[in-house]
């Protein structure tokens, strides 16, 4: 090899090394930039989730405030009635005092729940929906395309307005998510089981299966259906099981001693279960600190 050829070979090798170093540096820069973009995206998702959770908490606080205001209004009305009755019938006034005490404790319980919700986390006062509005909710969702089946067992007992509101919101949110994930044609089975002291509410839907049917997937396309179900399960887990909606429902249920569990049934849909073991006693001040 001539000296000139040696020089060219050395120059080519040096150029190759320079290009290799530049390529490695650029690759590292791109990887760092990608990691930074992914980190920013996760931060954005976390911030959106926090904002959604805060919005849910504000809704809880507002609704509990409406319930507390209504309870205090009842105490005021009873007190006014007792004042007018005191002159004519002292014994009736004495009996009314016991009723006022009970109503006042109920109002205090509602205020304590409101205080607890604020500690963890200009509305127009409107009548809060309760279990009586659940059938209207089912009708609206059926009209939107969700096939709702409702069963009720056991002997129902009267709930206070705050407890009714919690159960209604659980039904509203879970069925709304069933319709969002499954679309028209999805089905949901709602069951309410009353016990001597509590209530068990379950909502089971076939949103994943309904979405697969809507995309033209059936048993003949097993591989496609399996792949789609896995993707849909992942979306269900990230968007609902660990999402702001479910966190809000857990907080609502916990206010009345309820325990909420939720899971995705692979290839089928979503299953939600809420157990209120002592809801009858949570109608008043049970479990709520009064001092």
Automatic annotation (TrEMBL):
The keyword Transmembrane applies. One of its GO terms (biological process) is phosphorelay signal transduction system. Its EC number is 2.7.13.3. InterPro entries: HATPase_C_sf, HATPase_dom, Sensor_HK_TwoCompSys. Residues 166-278 form the Histidine kinase/HSP90-like ATPase domain. The chain crosses the membrane at residues 6-25. PANTHER family: NITRATE/NITRITE SENSOR PROTEIN NARX-RELATED, NITRATE_NITRITE SENSOR PROTEIN NARQ. This is histidine kinase. It comes from Leifsonia shinshuensis.
